[in-house]
């Protein structure tokens, strides 16, 4: 059911994740993405093992909104450090291929950032 909802959100949106792609997508007719129920669980499941505080993971804390927002430029995914590393073809995060975010997850994060990266 959750996968269907994500795909429904993203229908009609073509998002290329080829490194530093700088295109803009019209998100006018896309429903608001929820940080708490959709975006945060992606970070907690895939990133917080290494990025959970100042003592490891480059001092990044991706377990809460405040920590994630340190690497987000609200309204502009292409200028957001997090989006850059999850779509990089050179140094993609998470680093192991079996933990890499899938296209739906990357697209959901893209839409959330473009919508203003709200704590909703």
Question: What does this 3D model show about the protein?
Answer:
The protein has one domain (1-10, 34-47, 59-120). The two termini are 21 Å apart. The model is unreliable at 11-21 (pLDDT under 50). The chain has five helices and no strands. The longest helix is centred in the middle third of the chain and has 12 residues, at 35-46. The protein is globular and about 40 Å long. The protein has 120 residues and is mostly helical.
**Low-pLDDT runs:** 11-21
Strand content: under 5%
- What is the residue-averaged pLDDT? 80
Q: What share of residues is helical?
A: 25-40%
Please, what is the oligomeric state?
A: single chain
Q: How many DSSP E strands?
A: 0
Biggest sheet: strands, sense, closure?
Answer: none
Shape: globular
Indicate the structural class.
mainly alpha
Please tell me the total number of domains: 1
Intertermini distance: 21 Å
Radius of gyration: 13 Å
The run of helices and strands is HHHHH
> Please, how many helices?
5
Secondary structure: elements and pairs:
Blueprint: H1 2-10, H2 35-46, H3 65-69, H4 81-87, H5 103-114
Structure characteristics:
mainly alpha; single chain
Write a concise synopsis of the structure shown.
With 120 residues, the chain is mainly α.
């Amino acid at each position: 059911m959750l996968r269907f909802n994500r795909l429904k959100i993203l229908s009609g949106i073509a998002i290329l994740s080829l490194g530093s792609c700088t295109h803009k997508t019209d998100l006018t007719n896309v429903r608001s993405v929820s940080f708490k129920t959709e975006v945060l669980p992606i970070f907690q499941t895939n990133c917080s093992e290494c990025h959970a505080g100042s003592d490891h993971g480059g001092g990044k804390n991706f377990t809460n909104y405040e920590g994630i927002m340190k690497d987000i430029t609200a309204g502009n995914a292409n200028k957001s450090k997090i989006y850059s590393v999850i779509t990089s073809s050179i140094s993609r995060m998470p680093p192991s291929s079996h933990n890499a975010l899938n296209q739906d997850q990357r697209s959901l994060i893209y839409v959330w950032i473009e919508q203003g990266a709200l704590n909703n």
